[in-house]
Amino acid sequence: MSSGVLEEYSRDQGPVTQPAMPAVVVLAESVEEVQHVMRCAHLFKVAVVARGTGTSLSGGAHAVSGCIVLSLERMNRILEVRPQDELAIVEPGVINADLNLAVAPHGLMYAPDPASHTISTLGGNVATNAGGLRCAKYGVTRDSVLALDVVLADGTLIHTGHTTFKGVAGYDLTALFVGSEGTLGIVVGITVRLKYLPIQTRTLAAFFPDFPAAAAGVLAIGAARVQPAILELLDGNTLGVLDAAFQSNLAARGGALLLIQTDGFGAEAESAVVRKVLTQAGATVEAEDGSEAAMLLDLRRNARGDGVDDDFRVGEDVAVPRSQLVHYAGELERMAAEHGVRLRLVAHAGDGNLHPTFWVNRDEGQAGMHRLQAALDESVRVALGLGGTITGEHGVGQYKLRWLAWEQSAEVLSLQRRVKEAFDPLGILNPGKAIT
Amino acid sequence: MSSGVLEEYSRDQGPVTQPAMPAVVVLAESVEEVQHVMRCAHLFKVAVVARGTGTSLSGGAHAVSGCIVLSLERMNRILEVRPQDELAIVEPGVINADLNLAVAPHGLMYAPDPASHTISTLGGNVATNAGGLRCAKYGVTRDSVLALDVVLADGTLIHTGHTTFKGVAGYDLTALFVGSEGTLGIVVGITVRLKYLPIQTRTLAAFFPDFPAAAAGVLAIGAARVQPAILELLDGNTLGVLDAAFQSNLAARGGALLLIQTDGFGAEAESAVVRKVLTQAGATVEAEDGSEAAMLLDLRRNARGDGVDDDFRVGEDVAVPRSQLVHYAGELERMAAEHGVRLRLVAHAGDGNLHPTFWVNRDEGQAGMHRLQAALDESVRVALGLGGTITGEHGVGQYKLRWLAWEQSAEVLSLQRRVKEAFDPLGILNPGKAIT
Ligand SMILES: Cc1cc2nc3c(=O)[nH]c(=O)nc-3n(C[C@H](O)[C@H](O)[C@H](O)COP(=O)(O)OP(=O)(O)OC[C@H]3O[C@@H](n4cnc5c(N)ncnc54)[C@H](O)[C@@H]3O)c2cc1C
Ligand SMILES: Cc1cc2nc3c(=O)[nH]c(=O)nc-3n(C[C@H](O)[C@H](O)[C@H](O)COP(=O)(O)OP(=O)(O)OC[C@H]3O[C@@H](n4cnc5c(N)ncnc54)[C@H](O)[C@@H]3O)c2cc1C
Question: Which CATH architecture has domain B201-302?
């Protein structure tokens, strides 16, 4: 195996703090192959790091030294679409957007749509309980997963869950595997519930003078008791980055942008209410037609830019209770100023899930890195102090482990370890990730 | 403690197959009292059966011999309603409907609404992952629970989950506790996400010649890609029972009734589509005004009648993939005829969740009971054969344990036991329930 391949599979898109190389990369093509890998790994006590397409932003798919990287990307068949049952059964390597292409002709959609929907796998989405743009209305990955096929640490294949919408036989192992970041088993089959493709959508672009004003707009929509499908917030710096990259002219239109999409039979009426309350809240609101709207949402999905996070730039993923959005946005600006780091901010605002990106110039070296770390730590502490969480959707992975004990008590941490031991007594599944 | 009290707390509303008396009933009034009970129980290895209001239909709250029945019904305070954060924090003994009364003035609702919503507790709803009428659109209990306070088997108090809409730090212990039927810990605090009270609702009553035709109507609504909030199906025998009990005249209007409620900004438009497709499907469709609609839904909620299940009457709770509804309805009628038992049937049809009630006359004694058991067993086997589950929402409890291994593999059963051991090594929490 060439060292180029090993290198390529040694990391995901999250910051690397503990560089490590795998001993081998396996590109599994069948459930049996996955079972075989796990049986061998179990026998020889070798660590196994499952991997979709490595778009994780928290180092969940980073190699640990001498491990087997078990890539599921080749297991990418959509096994079944059952339009009347409103479900689909897929292999883990299927790309999120490909499933949506396959089910759209039936008037159906797979709702959870991480911004990485064209590049990330459903197995990775399941393993991280991925969120996305439509989650405030349609829920996160867990809410759409009905059943799983999982290969356990010793190679045993199990099936959890049900192919009915509801089912409560036994413990909800399906939900436990969702979000477990490859530490409890390898997901080799996924049964998802599909939702109805909305009969219509309405998209509004609301430009505000600044981020806190736009965050207040989110609360105004909530107070009007309208539930948009999409409610995304971009700050002025992000608009500037997008303008530079894609020749758009967003920054000229305002200091912060709230993108709202309503959908379904009530889309028009909901959109009218949203327009009214946001205008009252001081926004300049424009209705976008189909192609403009799609373009704006695509820009939002690309709001991370294409750089990969590293020592000098880190994208965060905190969430706060919605009432704290305005306050927290202000706090982030204060922190950036105090620590002398630069900040841009996008948010799945309907969920209170914020992605601030902090960065410093590379030529600042260690000093810059330390200021960056201090800003990151404070952003996490302040979010927790407001009743928030260290990770809304990206997962703890390797990078956020140092913050986990700030959020969870010693008792919860130890209970999680006992759960882990029940599934993986030898500790070979993605060691050093997700839990401490 | 009087034997009357012990008797009262010795069983829930499910059939009793292993009659047993508790040693003591504790009506806990605080988290500390619950912790104290668990510490003592742990020390003396005494079984503890948690209890809300005992409306379980599967014996989940039945006493086991010499146990402590730990009732949470007095811990019934709504601790906090946070309208801007769209969440509420409650003690476990709060009655489901009381929470809805408390949050309605804020334009909010707690979505999961079991037909027992005026008599069951949120702690019980969480422990069974209760479903209800609005689940097809709004999800089950698990989808509304953000965080839990749980007293573990040894008295340790932990907090799981997050007060944000999204959060993926650590394993989803919250989801694991939901539906665990008091076997992993005692739920002493619940943080729920609230949804928006719909701006309007539209209710249709569609009468069909028979149950299979009505079930086909459910699929027709699905094919039109309209998602009603409520989609309940009642067969002719149920209509007759309701008419007798409540002086209604439903049976005269048709052989089966499909009750449909659409809600939200699109309610009117959705209702028009539903009316059209159901008329085409052969139904007589009538729009119900507010009071009539409420009355019909109340009748549906009372469709179980007031008898408690026993050896001669058992209500079932299977679910099948939606495409199998028509076929399965036919199968149930065939089984009833073949086994010489009587049948009536209601269904949360939008979810494919059916509640057939089988019964025989009491004076038939053992012979009748055997025929009833044979019919029940077959109804479960056939549902499983169609890709269904033995329990859509009521839980396995004690009564459905004999069917669990028909649905779950030996590997899953053993994995569940290992999870149980990680939480409750002495096996004192509700032994002999939920899992084998
Ligand atoms: C531009 C961009 C935008 C993004 N936007 C979002 C967003 O909006 N919402 C969001 O939630 N995330 C987002 N992400 C993060 C990332 O895309 C998600 O976490 C995604 O779910 C990871 O999928 P993947 O296939 O790349 O998994 P990987 O990165 O390969 O792996 C992620 C984790 O899952 C485990 N894993 C992968 N496959 C399996 C399997 N089959 N069985 C068991 N474990 C497995 C890995 O071990 C690792 O712990 C974004 C990332 C990028 C680069
Ligand atoms: C008329 C009627 C209609 C019904 N309709 C529905 C319906 O539509 N959907 C549905 O899902 N169910 C329905 N049910 C069943 C029942 O109401 C639900 O299962 C309900 O959730 C039970 O709540 P409870 O407070 O009565 O709990 P109990 O019956 O007291 O207990 C149920 C289970 O939960 C455990 N438990 C209770 N409280 C706690 C706690 N605080 N911590 C840990 N474990 C606990 C018990 O040990 C037991 O295993 C109906 C029942 C009746 C009688």
Answer: 2-Layer Sandwich (3.30)
For the residues of B149-194, what is the DSSP string, one character each? Answer: EEE-TTS-EEEEE-SSS---SS--HHHHHTTSTTSS-EEEEEEEE-
Domain A3-71: CATH architecture, name and number where available: 2-Layer Sandwich (3.30)
The set of protein residues with a Cβ atom below 6 angstroms from ligand 1 is A 12-13, 49-57, 60-61, 72, 92, 114-116, 120-121, 123-125, 127-128, 130-132, 181-182, 186-187, 304, 393-394, 430, 433
Tokens of A95: 């790309």
Query: What pLDDT, on the 0 to 100 scale, is given for residue A306?
Result: 61
Q: Is B232 in the pocket of ligand 2 (CB under 6 A)?
A: no
Question: Mean pLDDT in runs of 10 for chain A (436 residues)?
Answer: 91 95 98 98 98 97 98 98 98 98 98 97 98 94 98 98 97 98 98 97 96 95 97 95 91 96 98 98 93 88 77 94 95 96 95 96 94 97 98 97 98 98 98 96
CA distance A404 to A406: 5
Between A84, A319, A395, which is nearest B322 by CB?
A84
B176 or B291, which is more confident? B176
Mean pLDDT of chain B: 96
Strand partners, A161: A147
How many CB atoms neighbour CB A338 within 10 A? 12
Does the fold of domain B313-393 match that of domain B201-302? yes
Residues B189, B149 contacting (CB under 8 angstroms): yes
Sorted by where each begins, the domain ranges of chain B are 3-71, 78-196, 201-302, 313-393
Q: Is the reported ipTM for this assembly greater than 0.90?
A: yes
pLDDT tens per residue across span B248-294: 999 999 999 999 999 999 999 999 999 999 999 999 999 988 888 88
Instruction: Give the architecture-level CATH label for domain A78-196.
Output: 2-Layer Sandwich (3.30)
CB A15 within 8 A of CB A315: no
To test the pocket of ligand 2, the residue of B13, B16, B25, B51 to mutate (highest count of ligand atoms within 8 Å of its CB) is: B51
Instruction: Output the six-digit token pair for A58.
Output: 């928290």
Q: Measuring CA to CA, which residue among B6, B103, B110, B124 is closest to residue B57?
A: B124
Whether B223 sits inside 8 A of A84 (CB atoms) is: yes
Residue B305 is predicted with a pLDDT of: 66
The pLDDT assigned to B289 comes to 84
pLDDT digits (tens, 9 = 90+) for A164-195: 999 999 999 999 999 999 999 999 999 999 99
User: How large a percentage of chain B has pLDDT more than 90?
Assistant: 92
What is the Cα–Cα distance from B185 to B41, expressed in whole angstroms?
Answer: 13
Ligand 2 site, residue B187, Cβ cutoff 6 A: yes
CB A394 within 8 A of CB A56: yes
Residue B290: per-residue pLDDT = 81
CA distances from B327 to B214, B216, B219, B389 (A): 12, 10, 12, 16
DSSP states along A172-215: -HHHHHTTSTTSS-EEEEEEEE-EEPPS-EEEEEEEESSHHHHH
A313-393 has CATH 3.30.70.2740 classification: yes
Helix (H), strand (E) at residue B148: strand B145-151
Which whole-number Å values give the CA distances from A132 to A12, A78, A125, A245, A382, in the listed order? Answer: 19, 21, 10, 22, 23
Residue B71 CA to ligand 2 centre (angstroms): 13
Question: Whole-structure pTM over 0.95, yes or no?
Answer: yes
- Is residue B391 within 8 A of residue A168, CB to CB? The reply is yes
Q: How many CB atoms lie within 10 A of CB B253?
A: 13
pLDDT on residue A289: 84
Rounded to the nearest angstrom, the minimum Cα separation between A322 and chain B is 5
User: What is the bridge-based pairing of β-strands A48-51 and A68-71?
Assistant: parallel
| Token pair listed for B360 | 């025989």
Rg (CA), chain B: 22
